[in-house]
């Protein structure tokens, strides 16, 4: 019984200890992400001064976190810093429209989620709106509808700008460069895209690239840490059952030998 208790205790420790360590490591960065979300809610409610205070508090906490743990690469630090500065400006610039303020702080919120998420970051939720607008953009180009084309392209560029910093955190640099090249071509050569079939192919390629990126980021619904727990737990159970089975087999053998010795003594 004591041996079984030891095995059970070891099983619980191996299962819970890594999760506890993981939770303590995440607590600080999770707090930063929560502050970014609260700042966004404040801006959505037009409480710009309160949002500014939260963003200032974020800056203090972020500095402490990075100095203590140094968990980010230089690129990640730069992206977070730029997004944070843009968000702060959105809370203080009285000439900025409410929608632009919301977009800037949303951009910052998505960056913090991309930093902390190991799968399906929040920016992937923009797939539907972005691809819908892009579909309208393609249709306007094919129909030669100049006004609708410019309107849809501007809408697409605005939404893409919101998720762009997060893309740079999650997508390989060479793929981002290809996206940039195609988007810049479409934006810079708008008249050609409206009138030339060869230039409109860039729209098809860009749409395909965007779909592939969204699909790759959403295809795995399971948190990798969950798979680790499943595999680890399964291995422990198998080892435990095997050991218990071996002990039972050995015990049965001992009982059988005892019976044989007893039988011989009687004879």
UniProtKB/TrEMBL annotation:
Keyword Transmembrane included in the entry's annotation: yes
Annotated signal peptide: 1-23
Domain of life: Bacteria
Keywords: Membrane, Signal, Transmembrane, Transmembrane helix
Transmembrane segments: 226-246
InterPro entries in alphabetical order: Spore_YpjB
One Pfam family from the record: Spore_YpjB
Name of the protein in its database record: Sporulation protein YpjB
Species the sequence originates in: Robertmurraya mangrovi
Upper taxonomic lineage: Bacteria, Bacillati, Bacillota, Bacilli, Bacillales
């Amino acid at each position: 019984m004591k041996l079984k208790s030891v095995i059970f205790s070891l099983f619980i420790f191996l299962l819970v200890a890594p999760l506890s360590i993981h939770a303590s490591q995440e607590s600080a960065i999770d707090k930063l992400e929560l502050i970014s979300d609260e700042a966004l809610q404040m801006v959505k409610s037009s409480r710009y001064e309160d949002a500014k205070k939260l963003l200032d508090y974020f800056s203090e906490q972020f500095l402490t976190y990075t100095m203590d743990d140094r968990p980010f690469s230089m690129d990640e630090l730069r992206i977070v810093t730029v997004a944070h500065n843009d968000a702060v400006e959105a809370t203080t610039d009285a000439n900025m429209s409410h929608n632009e303020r919301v977009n800037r702080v949303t951009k910052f919120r998505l960056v913090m989620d991309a930093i902390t998420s190991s799968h399906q970051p929040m920016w992937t939720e923009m797939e539907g709106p972005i691809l819908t607008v892009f579909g309208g953009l393609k249709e306007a180009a094919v129909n030669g509808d100049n006004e609708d084309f410019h309107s849809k392209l501007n809408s697409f560029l605005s939404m893409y700008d919101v998720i762009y910093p997060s893309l740079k955190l999650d997508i390989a640099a060479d793929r981002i460069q290809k996206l940039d090249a195609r988007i810049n071509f479409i934006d810079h050569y708008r008249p050609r895209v409206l009138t030339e079939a060869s230039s409109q192919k860039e729209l098809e390629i860009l749409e395909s690239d965007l779909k592939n990126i969204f699909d790759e980021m959403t295809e795995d619904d399971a948190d990798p840490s969950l798979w680790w727990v499943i595999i680890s737990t399964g291995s422990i159970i198998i080892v435990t059952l095997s050991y218990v089975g071996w002990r039972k087999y050995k015990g049965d053998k001992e009982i059988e030998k005892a019976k044989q010795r007893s039988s011989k003594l009687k004879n």
